[in-house]
Amino acid sequence: MQISDSEKCIMDVLWKSSPQTAKSIIANLDKSLNWQDKTVKTLINRLLKKEAIGFQKEGREYLYFPLLEEEVYIEQASESFLKRVFNGKVSSFVAAFAKQEKLSNEDIAELKALLGDLDAEDGSKK
User: Nearest 10 degrees: CA dihedral of 51, 26, 20, 60?
Assistant: First the structure.
């Protein structure tokens, strides 16, 4: 499921706390976005059509909630990014950061630990 950057701002609000009314979503958005109410409502409608969010009617208000889990979105977006930019190669992704010196010693230690865990899991499956 493709979610635009603008739509993700709405999802972030709902992943943090839901259900919420449109008015509440607007109030909880980053103020620097400076979006009109109509813009937010358009984004909500797009997310409803994509079935990324759902709603329930309570009196005269609609309460919106995420149908797409944040973890699932992150996995899909990460995979899509890797395929588009790095031809699906994680090593190319990490190398790009290493060349730009964007990896701290802490990042490198975390990557080594993660690789160690993956290697241990792979060994236990054999």
Answer: -100
